[in-house]
Amino acid sequence: MDIKELIALGGLFHDIGKPVQRAHLYSGDHSIQGYRFLLDLARETGVKEYETLALFARYHHRKYMEEVEKLKIPDDVKVALYLVYIADNISSREREDERSGYDVRRPLKSVFNRDLSYPLYQLSLERLPIPGTVERIGSEEYRRIVEALKGDMKRVEPRTDKVMPILEKHLTFVSSVTTENNVISLYDHLKMTSAIALALYNAGCRPRSVGEAEKCMKEKNLLLIEGDFSGIQDFIYSVSGKGTLKYLRARSAYLELIGWDIVLKIIKDLNLTLANIVFNAGGHFMIVAQNTKDARNKLEDIRRKVTTWLWKSFEGKLYIGIDWEECSGEELMKDFKEVRGRLKKKVTIRKLKRFEFVDGVFSIGKAEKLEECQICGVEVPEEELKELEFKDGEVAKVCKTCHALWFLGERLIKMEKGLVLTDKITGEGIPGPFSEFLPYEGQLQGKYLLLKNTFNPPRTDMVFVPYVVADYYREKEGRVINFNELAEESMGAKRIGVIKGDVDKLGEYFANRRSISEYSTASRFMDYFFKFYLKGVIRGYYSDIIGEVPSLSEWKENPNVVVVYAGGDDFFIVGSWNEIFELAFRIREAFRRYTGGGLTISMALGYFHPKTPIYRIADVMTERLEKAKDEGRDAIYVIERTGWRISYPWEIYMDFWREIGRKVYSDGRLTEKFGDKKGLLHKVLELRELYVRDPRDVRWAYLLAYHLSRHEVEEVFRRILGIDSKALEEGKPQPIYWVDGILKVILMAVRG
To answer: Scanning 295, 347, 477, 510, which has the fewest C-beta atoms within 10 Å of its C-beta?
Structure first.
């Protein structure tokens, strides 16, 4: 086995003894038990490499490191042991919190709410992980996890890309250390240890003692690399013409693949592994690498090529700021927040200097006739446009990227398995900055195989990358449903609905993560909600967790919904407006439970004619989401309304729906009392406007009482009847202020 692969795997296996020890499978501390576990794995599989890897489990604590010198093993393996030892120290800031002592029964705390803990189970789409009041994890539970882990390990060869997804599947909910408030998953600790050890080796560290290893830790041998896209909205939503929804999905997927292409290029050129990717989500990535002149030169070259490619391909609509910050292992361990803060500033500045590497950005090019692509609007030389014929015979002239996305877009969206990234440019796939992307159907060969939503490694020589994606779409006649059909499937008003949402104050949250391992855990858990579990929410899973939410009809198994974009911490989803309305509340409730209430989310809803241009929809949704954020966050913009606050705090809207909404509307229609009283509902809205125009005028109160009593429905609207003196004293709006968002939605649902 190559020494670099050995170091990477050594990092991944060094603490494998922790769950083994908690399962009481052997005797001794976790170093000894991990060692025995891997020796048994070597014996049972006949794979000798596990005997060498067992040494990393046995020798990674200081008290055992003196024995390394006496071992009869090659010198480079001893160097590898010292590197994993020191990398373990760098990635283990959580060990500093030892005052509570250790208890092997302690569960993993939620990285979003340290008061709550996770049960022990495998990572899977079927189970939304909800932190709760878990006091202890028993040895039997650990035994089941370890046996399942061992079973999967027997089925794959010891390769970093094959081992990582298995460890992730089984060790995500195993605590890295059993102190009282640990929030770091063992998987993330193993991954970061592997990353740092390999980066130190690539930096030239060759320690032959603990002292030399500690010296490596104090020198600036590491780079933290970050990339962040700008212009995502312009890139995805600047399309028009036929097949818009299919295009939106394809461009969203394309953006994700461009990000992977860049990340994998960095990994390959810097001789790193997938473990070195701290995260890659939402158009944003972070990588741990070696700080050498060669690495920095390669990064400069990659940055220049990516920038040039983006400029030529998208005329400046899409940009990625890539930068790096050197640091020592000691800084990474003790001052991760400081290092990351410095890097963030550099990336921000880099984004302001966009395209500075591209020659001729500010000069006038040679005189040639340019013509706009009729789909994305990019101007290209006339001879580069290609003709695209639609089913109705109409022909459009489009750029080569749109041409490729048109033919491969449907396959890209509907692909059952995944994608291959290949550096052999055939022209048959979709071009990236360094690779060509082709849908994988079982035969293709390339550099990387990105398989969708699975942690089970395939039998292939290609590098396996789990490709987690929220790929739900409503299929109609074998294709993605279109805007007109979504509107036709709506209740009442024939409109498409849109949700745009993102997590509140996420930058502040991540800026306060104390270690790189904690950062890795937090970013992975966040990304998985929007990529992994969102699909389950849409399909109607987790109803027992979500509970009752505002609803206009029974939730379908295959709702009329298309996920345009979801990842990182945000999402953009379209569908039939009534289903989108309910989905917003389903997502919020699932997210609230998923984070244990530790983070909040804001969303905007919009209802549009199906012919509305998508770029206009995107602009409106952005404005509405900003409004919800400006008004205090943890809120939803439900509908256009008048007054001094437009969005609703989630709980206020849900309270009013429970108290009034479901008494007015139920089972897809107005309730019996209101079956012939649409006029009364409109009258309530008029009186609400009377209040908003002049809150000091109380005519609305007695007029409301008059009309409701005349129709004998005062009980239903008791919440908004009369003057609320407490609200008046506190300067808060009268309850009638909130009723319009309920009644307008109901009136849309029953519109004939």
So the answer is: 477
